């Protein structure tokens, strides 16, 4: 039972993944992936995080499925390593058994494992409300800045996805189930989702 | 528990609604709506069906929420009656109790009832396969004609929706849950969906 979760920033996709993993008693991987890469490659953790989340655009010309148009410099080589390592680590997680993987194009990377792919989304008001409730006092942004941040992070996620596939980030055709978290507490969605996931899994086993 | 289902043509949304209604033991309304209008208004059933599914475009300028830009002729008046009657009947269904309503903009019409809104979709290959398996031998179309038909029907559904709302047909933000039926038998999705729906409903009650 491998579940991948793609999510809009602020939609609660990460919380949903964590809660689902607790309910199903299977591991959930998110920032852990970055930390493992950092440990393995000795990169500075903040740098890796920066590459994965914000600067992947720069890595685009030299990655999987794309021909090199120039000789990568030192930074580019590091980026290739990061993306390749992420991919390898995600594959290793899947080989180890049932798990939930959040983000990082895991649905595409693990296609051959037939994962159940979930997209988590919400309307803008709900995402802003969620962020404001959860952000530390000194982290809080103005609405305008937050809207900009939300849009930028989602765009970077879409670009990260474009490294692996032409299938568009957030396009419902990429996912088995799209869950709208607007106006509902994430924990309220879990029992139903657990039932959905377990039944699918059970039915696949007995077939 | 009011559930509305919007669906792409060929995705199995109607089968999903019917099976869900059987599992939940609540009524499901689809073509029955048209039949009730036909009985009530004495219109020819085929005509009503034609208006609802194919010619709603012509009714656009004179419907709910839009100002009349010209005096409707006889046919236009009939169309207003059809759309108004559909709306009234859908509201009556909801007043009578738990039910599933497929299509006809029920999610928008019944907004005040807080329905659970589901969108059912599939990739093109899956929809063509589904249609070909189910169509009577004399109904079968060439692939090209079927693709055209699929696209036309979905466009008309989108236009019908535009009578009630600016919220775009098929845009996941309109729905609580979007279910991809590609490569899976509809009946396999039902146990999980039932659990999802019942838990949501139960949690809403105990709150």
Topology record:
Two copies of one chain form a homodimer.
Chain A: E1 2-7, H1 13-24, E2 28-29, H2 31-41, H3 45-53, H4 56-59, H5 74-96, E3 99-102, H6 106-109, E4 116-121, H7 124-134, H8 143-162, E5 177-180, H9 186-206
Parallel strand pairs in A: 1-3, 1-4, 2-3, 4-5
Helix pairs in contact in A: 1-9, 2-3, 2-5
What does this structure look like?
2 copies of one chain form a homodimer. Chain A is an alpha/beta fold. Chain A has helices at 13-24, 31-41, 45-53, 56-59, 74-96, 106-109, 124-134, 143-162, 186-206, and strands spanning 2-7, 28-29, 99-102, 116-121, 177-180. Chain A has a 5-stranded parallel beta sheet with strand order 2-3-1-4-5, with helices on both faces. Chain A is globular, with a radius of gyration of 17 Å. Mean pLDDT of chain A is 80; it is low at 54-75. The A-B interface holds A 119, 121, 123, 172-173, 175-180, 188-189, 191-193, 195-200, 203 and B 119, 121, 123, 172-173, 175-180, 188-189, 191-193, 195-200, 203. Strand 5 of chain A pairs antiparallel with strand 5 of chain B, so a sheet runs across the interface.
Give the tags.
homodimer; alpha/beta; 5 strands
Q: Tell me the major beta sheet of chain A.
A: 5 strands, parallel
Q: Which radius of gyration of chain A do the C-alpha atoms yield?
A: 17 Å
Number of helices of chain A: 9
Provide the helix percentage of chain A.
55-70%
Strand-residue fraction of chain A? 5-15%
- Poorly predicted parts of chain A: 54-75
Mean pLDDT of chain A: 80
Shape of chain A: globular
Count of distinct strands of chain A: 5
- The succession of helices and strands of chain A, N to C, reads EHEHHHHEHEHHEH
């Amino acid at each position: 039972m491998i579940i991948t979760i793609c999510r809009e920033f602020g939609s609660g996709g990460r919380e949903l993944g964590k809660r689902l993993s607790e309910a199903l008693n299977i591991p959930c991987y998110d920032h852990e992936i970055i930390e493992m890469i950092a440990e393995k490659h000795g990169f500075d953790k903040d740098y890796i995080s920066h590459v994965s989340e914000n600067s992947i655009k720069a890595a685009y010309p030299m990655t999987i499925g794309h021909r090199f148009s120039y000789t990568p410099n030192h930074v580019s080589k590091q980026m290739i390593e990061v993306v390749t390592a992420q991919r390898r680590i995600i594959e290793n997680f899947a080989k180890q058994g049932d798990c939930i993987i959040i983000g990082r194009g895991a649905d595409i990377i693990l296609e051959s494992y037939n994962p159940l792919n979930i997209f988590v989304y919400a309307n803008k008001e709900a995402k802003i409300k969620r962020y404001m409730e959860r952000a530390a006092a000194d982290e809080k942004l103005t609405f305008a800045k937050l809207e900009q941040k939300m849009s930028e992070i989602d765009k970077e996620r879409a670009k990260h996805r474009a490294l692996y596939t032409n299938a568009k980030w957030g396009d419902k055709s990429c996912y088995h189930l799209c869950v709208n978290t607007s106006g509902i507490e994430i924990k309220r969605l879990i029992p139903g989702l657990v039932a959905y996931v377990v039944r699918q899994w059970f039915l696949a086993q007995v077939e």
